[in-house]
Amino acid sequence: MKMDAAALQRFLERDFEQVADVLRVDSVGDGVTLRFTPDTRHLRPGGTVSGPSMFMLADVAIYFAILNRIGEVPLTVTTGAHIDFMRKPAAGVDLLAQAKVLKLGRTLAVGTAALCSAGHDDVVAHAQMTYAIPPKS
């Protein structure tokens, strides 16, 4: 493990101030669990969490699962993404993303994230993403 929960949280607060107020690293182990506390900025008409907000959660969670394995490599970037929205998240409840790395190569990493409403087992969205890892200089 190159970055533990505390290191990932510090990285989030230092370099991702645009979302640091709504994301928190819950746990790090075989993967990363990231907690999202949506506010009114993240809701769509009807009061449900917006797709772009859930995409952000999945993207950051998978990114952190990769950094957990390779260390702080800020220029690791998303190069491909697929997300399936399966059901409406529970209202007024945090969302959790459980992310893990499926394949880690020298220049590419592939990860997956399952998003669930806190306290619920049903997956509300599932994402698979590919990231380019910059060459070591």
UniProtKB/TrEMBL annotation:
InterPro entries: HotDog_dom_sf, Thioestr_dom
Domain named Thioesterase: residues: 46-118
Pfam families documented for this protein: 4HBT
Xref: SUPFAM superfamilies: Thioesterase/thiol ester dehydrase-isomerase
Protein name, per record: PaaI family thioesterase
